[in-house]
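We modelled the chain as a single entity of 80 amino acids. Its sequence is:
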Amino acid sequence: MRFFTVVLGSISLKSAGTYLLHRSLNLDYKLGRLLIDSIVSYGFNYPLMKYWVFKINKLGISEAEEEEDYFETPGEEQRV
């Protein structure tokens, strides 16, 4: 769900930014799109994808020990 939130935000920012540059500065939409795409990609998408969507969960030692209880060690028939 987080991924789709970032994607929808990105699409909205790119569309609105391109429109505003074209309307306010009378900039060609192709140049405006390149400029806005690079700003949104590095200023919005990358940080959110890195720190929010694909963040690494660091478990404490006690939490990691509790987590081991959920996983079974494979038996002989599972290894083959």
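As a brief sanity check on the tokenised model: Residues 29-53 form the longest helix (25 residues). The chain has a mean pLDDT of 80.
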